[in-house]
Amino acid sequence: MSAATATEAAAAAAAAAAAAAEGQGIWRIDADRLWDRLMALARIGATPGGGVNRQALSAEEIASWHAMIDWALSAGLEPSTDAAGNLFIALPGADRDAPPVLAGSHLDSQPGGGRFDGVYGVVAALEVLTTLAARGVRPPVDIVCVAWMNEEGSRFAPGMMGSETFAGVRSLQAVREVRDADGIRVADALDALHAAFPSLRRRPLGFPVAAYVEAHIEQGPLLEAQERVIGVVTGIQGKKTFDVVIDGERGHAGTLAMADRRDALAAFARIATALHAEIGGHDDAVKFTIGRLQVEPNAPSVVPERVTLRIDLRHPDNAVLDHLGTRLVELCGTLAAPCQASVTPLVDAPSNGFDAALQRAIAEAAERIGQPHMPILSAAGHDARHLAPLCPSAMIFIPCRDGVSHAEHEWAEPAHVVAGANVLLRVLLPYARAGLGDSP
Amino acid sequence: MSAATATEAAAAAAAAAAAAAEGQGIWRIDADRLWDRLMALARIGATPGGGVNRQALSAEEIASWHAMIDWALSAGLEPSTDAAGNLFIALPGADRDAPPVLAGSHLDSQPGGGRFDGVYGVVAALEVLTTLAARGVRPPVDIVCVAWMNEEGSRFAPGMMGSETFAGVRSLQAVREVRDADGIRVADALDALHAAFPSLRRRPLGFPVAAYVEAHIEQGPLLEAQERVIGVVTGIQGKKTFDVVIDGERGHAGTLAMADRRDALAAFARIATALHAEIGGHDDAVKFTIGRLQVEPNAPSVVPERVTLRIDLRHPDNAVLDHLGTRLVELCGTLAAPCQASVTPLVDAPSNGFDAALQRAIAEAAERIGQPHMPILSAAGHDARHLAPLCPSAMIFIPCRDGVSHAEHEWAEPAHVVAGANVLLRVLLPYARAGLGDSP
């Protein structure tokens, strides 16, 4: 049998299975299994406050891989990894060499993170593949669940390491040299991860992808406020981050005259107040945050000699984002005197728009299962940002309570969790029986 | 022999020894021994940058006690301690029960401190006692070198624990409950210190003192600017410290609208800018410092939910100090919105003046050895602040290069170090031969 013939045969078989399933009304995922698996993963790295601490390349993330791989193998799916520590779980297609369709998100969490951010998109994708496999669907090309390495960037900064390395935005070599607060290199943590799964097949780093769909909680209040269950994500707002170092001079708090001081923390206060007013107050769409700050020597009776901070700036309009970024650097420079400020740009990710056809498919799927939906711009960054330049990409949002994420009490309603996964199933279904012309 | 007769006989012997020494022109300390001991102690906790990290009740401080006690015993002096971890080294007097004369300072340093702050006053006092002992002087009452526990307060905050507990300003029980950043209690560190010296005699905590003299580097630029070698310290400027906690709410840096944020670090920036302008800019004499600050959760993409800071406020005029302290609390309260700020006063030490007769004695001693001197107000706090209410007290300052202290490159000229110790010797000499009427 030739490859083409095999593909045709597989497609025919898939179409038959799909038609049978459609006829029986069973094109839906297993709601209980999906929820149980989410809660099972929430126990890995569970925090006393009901959240999750499962940081990138940690023992907890390795434990979550074991769970994912066990579930994959029991469903007849094929797990694999790559040099960047991304986890792939494939529903094998007829043509194993053709670019696969990917769906997923990330398994790592913030230190005090919740039970849904990231892991939801991975478990939903696994659930879709498990459902398709259980129905005997063999798609024309591989459909692959993916968990990208280190999306959060809370242990190894900045984040999105797996998707950026996959997309060629950053080099593997550069990523491997990043260290966490304990001085541990990504290289060593990554090698330890791979050592924990010695028989796992290794994919090449970066391969052609036919399409990418990521389900995620919104991390904002808009769906809840509009009483919509499905967000059709139109794009991701642009983001820039900066490291700022303010250098002053240390001195004795009781003896050094105020006029002679070069107090780095006083300079920070001036700079931050001005940035919050001008950058943070620019318009209703801007997001300006100084989330991390360190003071040296940080002693009660010593005038601070150095302040190090990280700035996170986001805006949906790339022209505005660029303008604010330039202005931010200027303000740091002019307001630091008599100290000195140096600004290092880190992330520089412009706004992007997702694939129009996939957005339509998400909206239609939501209607098909009777869920209210709306278009929405993602204010948070996601791995999908880095897949969008490579292939048609899209995201599905579901609400989270009070818009809260990156917090232990982050919560999504089980009904919404299930609805999002069913939309993902229906968006992926055409790829599972491509070329057959029928719709789910 | 009755106690009174013993005292008279001892005084006569001391007077004879003193007169003989004076006749031979040898009323001076051993300059090389003093410097060598300072440099020997600087090797205990030495930092790569030439400074010292010898924090309170640390292994390094215990090592410095071993050195001090070895030197004391080899000079026939008597070491002892008390329940607060103060170290005493006595030149025994004829009447062991009479209130002794104390001279000293502290052995602990800042984490990145220098080779003179504190340790100079202790080693200078030891050098004076060693000189007196070597000349066969037996004073009427004990003359005692003291090293007060934890003056700096960098490990266990706030500092001056030993002198405050000795003076009854704080209870030993309260001090023992203070914890360092690793959660170690003073109680446990103190018990470990005492366990390292099982045979050391224990004095009662707090006993009557006849007089107290403390030699110290200036920690400011005034002596250097005026080209004076000896500062006759008139008093210590008043000091207040405050702990401030600013409570906001955490949120996602990319999704939470600016208008809905309660950003604790943004509130800090506003508060600090206003405090620096109004409090720090009040007049030329005020010193206003925010030296320590912590941000929670301190993650790049999370709006800060809590900022904790320590404020250090000093002024020589007690009325102004009280006014600024009140105003500071008001400003924190009104500027924190939409966050909340709570202010806890810690240290509240008004300005004090030192004993006039001792100030005259210091000036006369400086003239006698041909060293230029000037009156000076101490901008930094010292243990002498807590002895002043108990007995006639005074301080001798020597210059430090560029006014720098609490820094690894803190430096004092050997000639100034020796001059200060010779002034201390001459100020203590009348106590070594009290009632005999002759002058050094």
Labels describing this entry:
homodimer; alpha/beta; Aminopeptidase; Alpha-Beta Plaits; 2 domains; four-stranded antiparallel beta sheet; 13 helices; disordered C terminus
Distance between the termini of chain A: 29 Å
* CATH fold description of the largest domain in chain A: Aminopeptidase
Total number of domains of chain A: 2
**Net shape of chain A:** globular
Q: How many beta-strand runs of chain A?
A: 16
Binding site for Zn(2+) 2 (chains A, B): 117, 152, 406
Family (chains A, B): Belongs to the peptidase M20 family.
Organism (chains A, B): Variovorax gossypii
Cofactor (chains A, B): Zn(2+)
Q: Describe it for me?
A:
Two copies of one chain form a homodimer. Chain A has two domains: 3-237 and 351-432, 3-Layer(aba) Sandwich (Aminopeptidase); 239-349, Alpha-Beta Plaits. Helices cover 37% and strands 22% of the residues of chain A. Chain A is built from 13 helices and 16 strands. In chain A, a hairpin with a 5-residue loop joins strand 1 (78-81) and strand 2. The first copy, chain A, is globular, with a radius of gyration of 24 Å. The model of chain A is unreliable at 435-440 (pLDDT under 50). Chains A and B meet through strand 9, helix 9, strand 10, strand 11 and strand 12 of A and strand 9, helix 9, strand 10, strand 11 and strand 12 of B.
